[in-house]
């Protein structure tokens, strides 16, 4: 047996190992997705207290003083106008510890977008894991092939790029125009720069 050829037993062992590594890598990708979502939840749920930052604390102190002075003027004017005390307007000042993320609807929107992004990242990772696994399995099998016919068959298997060619913008525009004509709408086509 040639020193550069693997034995059948070695190929079998390597194939099992490659498949196990693929399963572990996919599980790791799922775990990473969960960790990324948890990290994101921490970020959007973070509270930023004004008294943890000198600049914020000074700004809040100035705003509190200004609000108090403004309320004194508002109170004096409301009293002059004869507005009963319980109906008198007043200015409120408050610190929002989360900014826009204070609102559940905003956090839900951010969470939805983050989940979609994480899912897309995981799908790319899973494809890369599977492609790497298949390449390793192909290399292992190729090492054990002896006949020219077997090697030729292996090399004739189509690549994904040949099955899914790049998009042609002109063809996409033509499809949109055809759909628009079918629905009675005027097609919107992007063309080159005008001569005007």
Descriptive account of the structure:
- With 196 residues, the protein is mainly alpha-helical.
- It has two domains: 8-165, no CATH class; 166-191.
- Helix content is 68%, strand content 0%.
- The protein has helices at residues 8-45, 54-80, 104-144, 148-156, 160-163, 169-183.
- α1 (8-45) packs antiparallel against α3 (104-144).
- The model has no long low-confidence stretch (mean pLDDT 86).
Properties at a glance:
196 residues, 2 domains, elongated, mainly alpha
Major sheet characteristics: none
Tally of DSSP helical segments: 6
The total number of structural domains is 2
Give start-end ranges of low-pLDDT stretches. none
Instruction: Round the mean pLDDT to the nearest integer and report it.
Output: 86
- Look at the helices and sheets and give the structural class: mainly alpha
Strand content: under 5%
Percent helix, as a range, is 55-70%
Pattern of helices and strands: HHHHHH
């Amino acid at each position: 047996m040639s020193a550069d050829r693997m034995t059948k037993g070695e190929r079998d062992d390597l194939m099992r190992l490659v498949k196990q590594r693929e399963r572990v890598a996919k599980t790791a990708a799922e775990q990473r997705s969960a960790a990324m979502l948890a990290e994101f939840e921490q970020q959007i749920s973070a509270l930023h207290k004004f008294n943890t930052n000198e600049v914020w604390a000074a700004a809040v102190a100035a705003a509190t003083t200004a609000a108090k002075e403004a309320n004194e003027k508002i109170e004096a004017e409301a009293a002059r106008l004869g507005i009963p005390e319980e109906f008198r307007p007043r200015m409120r000042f408050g610190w929002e510890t989360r900014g826009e993320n204070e609102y559940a609807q905003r956090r839900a929107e951010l969470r939805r977008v983050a989940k979609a992004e994480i899912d897309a990242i995981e799908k790319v990772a899973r494809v890369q894991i599977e492609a790497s696994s298949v390449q390793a399995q192909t290399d292992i099998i190729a090492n054990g092939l002896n006949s020219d016919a077997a090697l030729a068959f292996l090399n004739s298997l189509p690549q994904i790029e040949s099955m899914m060619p790049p998009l042609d913008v002109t063809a996409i525009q033509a499809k949109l125009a055809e759909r628009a004509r079918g629905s009675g709408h005027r097609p919107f086509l992007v063309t080159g720069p005008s001569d005007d």
